[in-house]
Amino acid sequence: MTPDWQFDRGGNLELWPQGIKETPITLHSKFNRLVVMTTHDTSWHSVSPIVGDALRCCVSNYFFSDMPLRPSQSFHVTSFRGRPEQPLRDLVLKADIALRMGIRKVFAKGIVENKHVYQKPNSGTSDRS
After folding, report:
1. Which of 7, 87, 94, 118 minimizes the number of CB atoms within 10 Å of its CB?
2. Are 40 and 76 in contact (CB under 8 A)?
3. HSE (CB half, 13 Å, CA atoms) of 125?
């Protein structure tokens, strides 16, 4: 959403198909670009750090399915990790992931109700005006 964004300013989508020990595939954050991807337990992705004081804007949407993409897939909380050059942050974030997964094992729907979940109407009528 940011016209004339230069690659060297950072803010580019990084795909890590071999994990954070390998070099990511970097997609330039070009104006009006659409990237569609699946997310699962091994689809590691990130955004490269912004360089300087420039403001970069983007829109991200996630669509959830009742059926997993892979038959072997199981539930996991949305997780964040430190970049390769941030080992201490990565350690803290791993502990955060373990704590939140432990909570979800006790409270399957979380401790606080998520009010941002779309509920499909039960009737056969459309909810469009």
Report:
1. 118
2. no
3. 3
At residue 78, does pLDDT exceed 90? Answer: no
User: Which pLDDT score is estimated for 128?
Assistant: 52
What span, in angstroms and rounded, lies between the C-alpha atoms of 46 and 37?
A: 13
Query: Under DSSP, is residue 96 helix (H, G, I), strand (E, B) or coil?
Result: helix
User: CB of 8 within 8 A of CB of 26?
Assistant: no
Mean pLDDT of 87-97: 95
Q: Alpha-carbon distance 17 to 12, whole Å?
A: 16
Q: Round the average pLDDT of the chain to a whole number and report it.
A: 85
Q: ∠ CA 91-96-102 to the nearest 5 degrees?
A: 130
Handedness of CA 102, 71, 65, 83 (dihedral sign): positive
Question: Cα-atom radius of gyration of the chain, to the nearest Å?
Answer: 18
- Alpha-carbon dihedral angle through residues 68, 70, 75, 76, given to the nearest 10 degrees: -120
Q: Please state whether beta strands 25-27 and 45-47 pair in parallel, antiparallel, or not at all (unpaired).
A: unpaired
